[in-house]
Structures are given as C-alpha cells and as structure tokens.
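The passage that follows is intended for readers who have already worked through the single-chain material. We present the inputs for a multi-component assembly, then the predicted structure in tokenized form, and finally a short commentary. You are encouraged to pause after the input and sketch how you expect the pieces to fit together before reading on.
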Amino acid sequence: MDKRMKINKRKKKMSYAKWGYILLIPFFVVFIIFQFIPLMQTFYYSFYEYYSIGLSEIGPNFVGFSNYVKIFQGSILKYAGNTLILWILCIIPQMTISLLLAVWFTDIRLHLRATGFFKTVIYMPNLVMASAFGMLFQMLFASNGPIVDLLMDWGWIEETFNINQSVWGTRGVIALMNFLMWFGNTTILLMAGVMGIDNSVYEAATIDGSGPFKTFFHITMPLLMPIFIYVVITSLIGGVQLFDVAQIFTSGSGAVNNSSKTLMMYLYKLIGTSKNYGEAGAVSVVLFVLTAFLSFLVFAFTHRNPNKLSRKQRRLVKEYQLKGGEKDA
Amino acid sequence: MQKKILRLVVGVGTIAALCSCGDTSNVSGINTDGTNEGDVLNIRCWNDEFQGRFRSYYPDYMETDSDGNDILRDGTKVVWTITANEDNAYQNALDVALKANETADADDKVDMFLMEADYALKYADSDYSLDVKNDLGLTDYDLSQQYQYTKDIVTDSNGALKGVSWQACPGLFAYRRDIAKEVLGTDDPDEVQQHLSNWDDFNDVAAQMKDKGYYMLSGYDDAYRAYSNNISNPLVNDNDEIVIDPMIEEWIDTTKYYSDMGYNHGTTLWDTTWSADQGPNGKVFGFFYSTWGINFTLEGNSLADPTAAKELGNGLYGQYAVTEGPASFYWGGSWLAGAKGTDNPYLVKKIMQTMTCSRTVAKHLTLDTLDYTNNKAAMEEIAEDDTYGSEFLGGQNHIALFAKSADKIDMSNISPYDQGINEGIQTSFADYFAGSVTKEQAWDNFYTNIAEVYPNLQRIED
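Having made your guess, compare it with the prediction:
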C-alpha cells in the first residue's frame, strides 16, 4: 500500500514538469521556423550581393561588408535621423498627456466621473489599422481636402497647400497620428503603475502639506519610474520600426526631400522592385542591433537590484553613521 | 487488425489516385488544338479595364457569378486576379506566380497576364511569356492589321513576338472648349492647334490662360511624356549608366518655369486634386492624354454626378475636344501575354485572336468606348467616316486625329528601366518644382532613389 502511494507521488511530481516543457514546444517550433531561421538567413544574405534585374536574379555572390559600406555611404543615417525625429515629436506630447491623464483618472480626491467611458474612447484609435488611419489622414490633408478648405475659409492660408511639400507639416501630422494611436495604451499602462503606489504615501504627503505639483514630481514620478522607463523604451523600439503610418500618408514617397522617410520605408523600398536581399539584409541587421541594444537597456533597468542604494543615498547613510546614529535636529 | 490494414491501404490508394488526376501540365510542347484544356483560366491584371472589354466583347462570355468569376459557354471559369500597381505590388505578385507556374496546381496556374508599356520589355525578354506565333499559333495574317510599334515593343531579343495588344495609344492634348472660346476666341480643334503646334506657342498660350485666371496644365508631370518620348537615346546605355537626354532637361526647366509663373496647378498625376481639375470645378485648360485616358479617365472625371447617365449636361461631358498638341507622343497601353506553363493555351490564343486581331471587335470597341484599337483597317474606316463623332468630345472625330499620329510612334528608345526612371524623375523633381529643394538636391535624391530600385545602374560622374 505504502509503496504504491510513494510511486504514485513520484510519478505525479515528474509528470508536471514534463507537461510544462511539452506545452512550451509549440512556441519554440514556431519561433525557430518562422523567426530564428529567417533571422539567420537575413544575417547570412547581408554579406552577399543578391538582387534581381527584371526577372533574372543576380547572385548570391559573397561580397563581405560591401553592403554595409554601401548603405552607410548612402542615406541610412538620414533615414535614421528622420525616424528619431518622428519618434521624439510623438513621444513628448504622448508622455505628457498620458501622465496627466493617468494621474487625473486615479486621483481619489478629483473623483472624475465616467472614467470607464474615457478610457475606452482614448484606447479606440489603437484598434484602427494603421494603414486605414494613414489613408484617412491622407484624404483629410489632401490639397483639395477638408482641412485645407477649412484653413482657407478661416483665412489662415490663401491658396491650396500641399502638405507633402512641408517638411515639418508632414512630420507633425505623422507624429500626431502616432500620438492618437498610442496615447490610450500608454495612459492605461501608466494608470496601472500609479494605482500600484500605496495610498498611504499620498496621505502622508498631504498631511505634511505637499501640494499637487510637489506630490507629482517628488512622489508619483520616482515611484512610477520603472513603468515609465519601460513605456518609453518599448515605445522607442516601436518607433524605430515606424512604417505603415508614414508609408501610407506620404504614398511611399517620404515627402519632400525624403524628410519623412523612415528606416522601415527604406527597407521596404529595397525589397520592392529589385528584391535586393543583400542590402535589405544589411539594413535589417542594423535595425536588429539597434533594437537589441534598446531591449537590453529595458532588461538591465528592470532587473537591477532594488536594494542597491544610489550614490547619494550611500553618502547620506555614511554621514548618519559618522554622526553616531543621531538624527539631524 | 486486418480490417485496419485494408482500410489504410484503400485510403492511401484513393488519395494517390486523386493526386495523380490533378496533374495536367504539358511538359513536352504546347498543345493548342483545344483538347485537354484546363477548367480554370487565370488572368492577372492591375485594373478592370481589360475585364470590362472582355465581358462586353468576347462572344463566349456568358455571365459573372457571385464570386466575380466569369463563366464561358463551354463551362470554363475565368478567374481574375487584380492587384493594383501601387508600390510595385502587381509585378511582385506576378513574378512569384510566374516562377511557380510549372509546379502549380492546374487550376492555380497563371494562364494569361497583362503588362504595361513601361515594363513590357521585362516580361517580353524573359522566358516566362509565350511566343504568340510559335507557341500559341497566331498567324501573320491574324497580326497583319496591328500597328507595328505595338509589335516592336514586345518583341524579344531573338525576334519572337511575346504579346499582343488591343490598343494603340497615341497621345493628344485634350482641352476645354469653353475655356478655349473665352481665351482664344475659338473652340475648333484645327484652329486651336494653330496656337499649340509647338512648344513656344504653347507657352505663349499658357501666359494668356494665366491672365484670364486659368491654369494651362494641372500637374507637374502632365507634359512629361510629350518630352520623354522624343528622346534620341535610351535612358540606360550598354554600360548600365543612366543617360539623361536633353529633352528631359528641357522638361525640367519648362515645368519649373510654369510652376514659378503659376501656369500649372501643382498637382500630382492621379491624385484627388488632379482628378477634380478635370471636372466642372476645375480651372485647367487642358490635359495631355492618350487614347485610353480619354475614355477611361477623363470621361469619368468630367462628370458632375458620377452615378448619373453620361450625357450632355452632366458636368463637362461634351465640353472637351482633342488636338495634336506641340509634340507627338504615346502613353502606355496594355499587352496580353500567355504565361509559360499555362494549361489553357488554346483558350489564350482564342482570346488574343478575338480581342486583338478581329476587325469587328476592334470597330465595335472604338465606337462604344472611344478607345483607339489596334486594327489599322477598322481605325481607318472610322477615321474616314464623316458621320462619326464622339459625343463626349462635342461631336469631334478624334479617331481621324489619332490615326494620323499612330503610325508615327517610334518605340526604339525604350529600356527595361524606363518605369523606375520615369517615376523617379517625376517624384524627385516634384520637390524642385514646388520650390522646396534645389536642382542639385533633386538630382541627388533621384540617384539615391534609383539606387534603391535598380542597384546595378550607375550615375555618370561629370
């Protein structure tokens, strides 16, 4: 009787672990076939000259680093700059408004009504397909479209205005589109972060006489830092890959003087007519390195030791100890 | 146990039998006597122009079913795969399908595909299109009435004819009669042509238009082909270097002048404002159009109410006329090609024969749609017909005008890179015309753009 129970117990322990691994297999199989192997192939082809002229293929011929030299002599830095500018233009309003909304929605004393409704509504643009969103704005801002008509009626401009010819106009609208699509998502994440802060801290601050600004900058922001940094860096990773909004809005042209052409648009162009897997591979590797570096930053930041004191804190502790443990009067 | 084995064997046997049934590909030679034809004809194109022609004029067409497929009299199903041209999507999809054609399922094989003038050479010179005479069986007699240039453009480097077209596309200048009357005092095509017969006179008229508050042209690229078709050398030489012809430079300078003086409306080809300029709210004098443009684009854009009948009173219907303009040019055109590996060669040949070689079909097509068809006899018949006039063009016999210029078209300076270079120049210089970049920057942008599209082409350093 005893023996059988013991064997059963042992069997139960082993089978749980086994099932865990078995359930992970589908993910790994899909990952290896559809992501890892193509990634390795991309790396591989980035060292080869491999493109098509018409229906005939040139290559793959091994050319070492010449693809990388070619793209850096070309305009990849300009496109990287465009991508960065577009991201900055988007992230600043997005973070500001999201923080504001997150704080307001979770403030007990403010007690906003119908926050559920607002949360749903601000999240909705995220559900719209980015290409559809891009097309909508393209039609809105067309030179015979409603926005231009409105501006002419108000007398702000005299003749029709082609937004694609304005460097900052196009960039501004693309940033606006991204902002509208993502600020709902960011607000909800930050709200989750704020709600994780213990209310007693706020009560203590109020008792000590802290006003709203002081509370925000000295209590909310420091305690929100982990989530805030996470949101910023994942937004940066997404921003590096900005494609559909810019592509659809500028019809692939990148607006005047290629000022709104992003890295992904460049990549897309390379594999378009000429199926240039060599150079496109090189661009992909650059993007991969950039994204990997940013992911590493997120990882390092969120996994650092919370008990490790900062330099200032260590200095204060030392002073305290030197004074023999007495608190400053 | 034995029952299980029996079931397994029967099951595997059935599946194997069914699999071998599906393979009807013809490895040795192409059988064009109509036997062993597949049940599905797959046609690939980028818009519904040919689809409309096919449904109206192919005699064996019976009806369209609810999936959008056409059913022919013998039960064959015609499946249309329409992929738009934007971002090169049509050619990308077509290339993949053509390369896989030998091993595809019979019902999925691409049987026929369409190609535009700009990239026809790419497919004509490849192994993926069929020789219409030797492989499909069209005869010299069938092809005798076609205009020579339509055959030259799809003849490969070995002299084989790889495609046929139902259209010839000489270009004309379509102008608004009401504006012509107001500014030039006449709307008669011959008299208007006196004012537009060369570029200097054309530019003078542009100034007159501006004085009366009209634009001469709508977009930057409207006049491009009138210049680019008259180049003296191909755009890419034998060393894969891009050679910019003086005509292109002239187009750049003239368009910059027009943009600065306000003679054009600053639109881009095909955008919503350009289309609206052709309608009753537009203030543009004229548009460079070729034959298909008049009936496929201008007519639709000129209406005030697109859903109402196309007749006088609906917008600018009847208010346009055409004239030769300052330079002869051609613009586009669509060619039909048979795909290598097709399982319906006889049907492909029949469609080509009916739609592109038949004088009756050609004549009806032109009378109904104003399109200029690829049949000299039919076009000359209509050109000499005094009673023929197009209602859309206010009663003008535009076929007579086209017939004069169709024979003059010279396609000897095309290159396989024309499409990318034409588009690249137009895109890069739009910024220059709008005043946002300098000419040097526009050239740099053009070459950067070309390097992304055609990596093997070189820039000539001067």
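Commentary: Chain A touches chain B at residues 51, 53-56, 58, 74-75, 139, 142-145, 160, 162, 165, 167, 251-253, 256-258, 266, 268-270, 272-274, 276, 279 (CB under 8 Å). Residues 202 and 208 of chain A are 10 Å apart (CA to CA). How closely did your sketch match?
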